[in-house]
Amino acid sequence: MAVGPVERRKDDGTRVDLAGDVTGGGAPAAARDEPPSTGSATAEPAPLNAAEDRLLDLLRRIGTVGALLMAAGSLGAGAAPVYNPLPSVPVLGLFARIPTAAMACAFTGMFLVILAWLYLGRLVRPGRPRLVSRSQMDRTLVMWTVPLFAVPPMFSRDVYSYLAQSDIAAKGLDPYLLGPAQALGVDHPLTRGVPNIWRDTPAPYGPLFLSIGRALTQVTGDHVVSGVLLQRVVELVGLAMVVWALPRLARRFGVQPVSALWLGAANPLVLFHVVVGAHNDTLAIGLMLTGLELALRRLPAVLPGEPVPPRQPGEITGVVLGAVGISAGAMVKIPAVLALGFLVVIVARRWGGRAADLGRAILLVGAVSLAMIVLICVGSRLGFGWLTTLGTPGKIRSWLSPATGVGFLGATLALLFDLGNHTDRLITLSRVVGTAAGGLISLRLLWQTFRGRMVPMIGLGAGLGAMLVLGPVVQPWYLLWAVIVLATAAGTSRFRTWAAGVSAVVAVLVPPTGTAFDGRAYVLPQAYLAAALVVLTVLFALRGRLPSVGTVLRELRVSAPRT
């Protein structure tokens, strides 16, 4: 058995909730839109029919064309390095000379990828009698990913910070004390690519990630292009771990694996900010999910009202492997550490759900995690300096952060009422309150999980979402921490509809260059408008081959009933 939703299956396959709304959707069992015969992860759905196969082939082509357009647009609208070799290359250098057209090309590709992904969601919707197969989903993901591998970074310049911080570590200096400008010099090729705001700041990432980057630097030196490509390989390894663990966890928690892969791995935010943007979040998430899967495959579920089953061989080994994997993820990016708390309550419930069981679980998971963290810190020779730099991202004021927005609002009102300029103090106060609120929400979710009122993966996903959204800085790719984890256990169409809509909107909020276009505000509206006209033309041309938007909306309304 495996840790899963708090429910019991009858002999006919129907599901009976034992603790109310805990199976991931908010709707009573009788009102759920997934029929047990097809929506259950234990039942194999039928393959697509001929018409649906043709639709899938068309969607793959649309997404692939979109990825190719993004690749072309990145040549002139990407976050290119300062030492950019492309302008001197025949033909390819043309895009750098027409940045607005390149931007429109990139936006067109983004819209087409999002469009294909949303339509693909119809073919993986839980409850359908026929679903996309796992092999079809894997091939689709590969088709949309390959064109985006060997392109300039887009949407952010963070990867250049990774390169500079890795080079600092490779030179035997402390990346947790020195910024790129201090350690490498302002004229160093790697420093030149780092945004000005980060040139004097130390690294906020864990020693495991910097150790990997240090090893890559031994190969690439200060060559920016090859460094970016190898950093992208690292993130694709993280994505591979997500693709491995995600469907396995989904099956344990009663969610169709291909539906979880569609939402968690084929998500445009993954394609844009992991594959193209080369952010290290996917490596941390992949290690975290892998650790959870290694732990849960050896731990049987304990449902309310049932006796605790006898101990199974390998349970302790599973807990140890899980804690090691999660701790490794935390040594890339610290939010993964929250999964250790949920691993503790899973183990405590397995051992009986008493306070003493909770204490023993804390001792076991805590000891293994502490040993792993110390091993990484000491073995990497980077030490524990990362503890002092966790607040580095807070140096920027993200307009997507609700906590920062509240601080700005309060400061604006103070100025309107002639109370003085208290912007810095109010932003600091609102961020402290937001961080505290996120922590309290996570603690409550941990308690609910311990008491058997919350599915562990739903609690973890919601907790990560609360801590990151209420934190001092919010970036579009931060959403992946919540979406990927929730995709493993929240399988109802109501959640999928909201998650897909939010992902699609957030995916286009940041322009491909990752800049604000100060003084050239007209560029973005022109690019958005041009891309929208092209996509509308494509939809008109395919009007007989794609389902209408009205049909899609009607399906969503039917599959996501009010509760």
Write out key terms for the chains shown:
563 residues, mainly alpha, 23 helices, 59% helix, 1% strand, globular, disordered N terminus, disordered C terminus, glycosyltransferase, transferase, MptA/B-like, membrane, glycosyltransferase activity
Task: Walk me through what this model shows.
The chain is mainly α. Helix content is 59%, strand content 1%. The protein has helices at 36-39, 50-77, 94-97, 99-120, 134-145, 158-170, 180-184, 189-192, 207-220, 224-252, 257-264, 268-276, 281-296, 315-330, 338-350, 355-379, 402-416, 423-450, 456-469, 479-486, 493-507, 523-541, 549-559, and strands spanning 7-9, 15-17. A hairpin with a 5-residue loop joins β1 and β2. α13 runs antiparallel to α14 (315-330), α14 (315-330) packs across α16 (355-379) and α19 (456-469) runs antiparallel to α20 (479-486). It is globular and about 65 Å long. The model is unreliable at 1-42 and 558-563 (pLDDT under 50).
Task: Note the topology.
Blueprint: E1 7-9, E2 15-17, H1 36-39, H2 50-77, H3 94-97, H4 99-120, H5 134-145, H6 158-170, H7 180-184, H8 189-192, H9 207-220, H10 224-252, H11 257-264, H12 268-276, H13 281-296, H14 315-330, H15 338-350, H16 355-379, H17 402-416, H18 423-450, H19 456-469, H20 479-486, H21 493-507, H22 523-541, H23 549-559
Antiparallel strand pairs: 1-2
Helix pairs in contact: 2-4, 2-5, 4-22, 6-9, 6-10, 9-10, 10-11, 10-13, 13-14, 13-20, 14-15, 14-16, 15-16, 15-18, 15-19, 17-18, 18-19, 19-20
